[in-house]
Specification:
Elements lengths: L1 E4 L4 H10 L5 E6 L3 H16 L3 E2 L8 E6 L4 H12 L2 H6 L4 E6 L5 H10 L5 E3 L7 H11 L3 E2 L7 E4 L10 E5 L1 E2 L10 H5 L3 E2 L2 H13 L4 E5 L16 H9 L6 E5 L8 H9 L6 E3 L7 H6 L6 H14 L4 E8 L6 H14 L3 E6 L17 H24 L5 E9 L5 E5 L5 E5 L8 E10 L2 E6 L2
Helix pairs in contact: 1-6, 10-12, 13-14
Length: 460
């Protein structure tokens, strides 16, 4: 593993300034997961570092860059649709530079489709190439030729990339990249590569800087945070890293995602119980409640193992809440398999579920599996799952009423004059309060609920 440090590219900034009479503007749009959002923030930081301004409308831009997601087919089709819609804009502004990066750009069939069918796309580079963006822009400006890089895994971590964060009080902090699990339905290991852990000292330095800058909520990111530390010279695991970060003084909360159940340890749960800075909420994607399908998905745990983790967490962390990911309609799923998922959902009692109908991804083993279940049957199963989950969630939300809790105020509520805040357990509450509370902690008395959103009164 190679670790390099980003440095300001004065040469690129000088070239760019010669090509534009006024500072050029960039429009950057990120699709997909929180890791992609954080990548987008760093892309913006690099662009600002070399002289670009940022804009909110594609039609105002000199550079349009889509930072893409490849996890589901719908996300890919949406990107291609949005790229196609730029053809007319490019005809009106021939000097407009259009680029595509991120997970889609690390798939050969995508790059070839862009090469053949979208001749007005100028730049294509993968997930590991943010630090190379200044060089790519200069090459395009000077040589007037398209630069469509072939997908490649780059075994490098670039530290000190400049960043333009979207929030002044919530921050994403990646601790590792890539994935070694190769779940049969998932494209991530093929587009983001194998696991690469950042050095603890680099993570700690960035974390400390966020706390000193006043950030109240910091979310640690990784495709599987529980496998953090593999390949490092230092002997450290994820629980050790959490304890290291929690030693930083300040008023803040730490969240993390995503945890793989096969690597979730009792040591991790004990750490959540012991550290006040850690939110008492665990996102633990189970995917389904059938041991047969879990094996077919290459998940390396059973329903019994998963439920043992849940019960241990309940015993060690009073009041802990859970969320999860569920795939409906995985190839070969039977009604019996689906009933196992419903039973699991009822036993755990999730506060939140993120549910998806299986999406075939080219290049994954599951894409070759026979799939005879009609789409309508998958849709019906999804509706039944959501009905069960809604009933559970509304019951859990109503049980919160009457408490006085500390929330981080994140935005505006649905009604005029109200703000929205998030509890430690990841639920949201709306309450009337002053705008000056935005980005701050507030004490709120929970008075009621609207579906799965709590209602409250600000305790001044």
């Amino acid at each position: 593993m190679e670790y390099i440090t980003y440095e300001h590219n004065a040469e690129a900034a000088g070239v760019i300034s010669r090509f534009y009479e006024t500072p050029p503007l960039a429009y950057v749009h990120s699709y997909g997961c929180q890791q992609n959002v954080n990548d987008g923030e760093r892309i913006k930081g690099v662009l600002v570092d070399i002289g670009y301004g940022l804009c909110d409308k594609p039609e105002d831009a000199d550079l349009i860059l889509f930072n893409t997601c490849a996890v589901r087919e719908h996300a890919e089709q949406r990107v291609f649709g949005n790229v196609g819609a730029l053809k007319g804009l490019k005809e009106k502004k021939p000097g407009l530079m259009i680029g595509l990066c991120g997970c889609m750009a690390n798939q050969k069939h995508v790059v070839e489709k862009l090469r053949q069918s979208y001749p007005y796309v100028d730049l294509v580079f993968g997930v590991d190439g943010i630090d190379t963006l200044p060089e790519l822009i200069v090459r395009k400006l000077e040589k007037h030729k398209r630069i469509l890089l072939e997908p490649a895994q780059r075994p490098v971590i670039v530290e000190n990339l400049p960043i333009r964060r979207e929030s002044e009080f919530r921050a994403w902090l990646p601790i590792m990249y890539g994935c070694d699990n190769f779940c049969t339905y998932c494209i991530v290991p093929y587009v983001r590569g194998r696991e690469k852990s950042r050095r603890p000292a680099d993570i700690l330095a960035e974390f400390r800087g966020l706390v000193e800058a006043g950030y109240k909520e910091i979310t640690l990111l990784g495709q599987n945070v529980n496998s953090y530390g593999k390949g490092l010279e230092e002997s450290i695991d994820f629980a050790d890293l959490l304890n290291l970060l929690c030693s930083v003084p300040g008023d803040y909360h730490i969240r993390f995602m995503t945890s793989h159940p096969k690597d979730a340890s009792r040591k991790l749960i004990d750490t959540i119980a012991a550290q006040p800075h850690l939110c008492k909420h665990l996102h633990l994607p189970v995917q389904c409640g059938s041991d047969r399908l879990l094996a077919k998905m290459n998940r390396h745990y059973t329903v019994e193992h998963y439920l043992d983790l849940i019960e241990y967490a309940r015993a060690r962390v009073p009041g802990i809440t859970f969320s999860s990911d569920i795939i409906v309609g995985f190839p070969g799923e039977t009604e019996e398999d689906f009933q196992g998922t419903l039973d699991l959902v009822r036993k755990v009692g999730y506060m939140q579920l993120f549910t998806f109908i299986y999406s075939k991804r080219e290049g994954t083993p599951a894409a070759t599996y026979p799939d005879d279940t009609p789409r309508q049957e998958k849709t019906d199963r999804m509706a039944r799952l959501l009905a069960v989950q809604d009933e559970i969630a509304m019951g859990l939300v109503k049980a919160q009423v009457g408490q006085t809790v500390r929330v981080l105020v994140e935005g505006y509520g649905r009604l005029e004059g109200t703000l929205s805040g998030r509890l430690d357990n990841n639920l949201t509450v709306e309450f009337a309060a002053e705008d000056s509370l935005m980005g701050q902690y507030a004490m709120v008395h929970l008075t009621g609920a609207r579906a799965t959103v709590l209602l409250g009164e600000w305790v001044q």
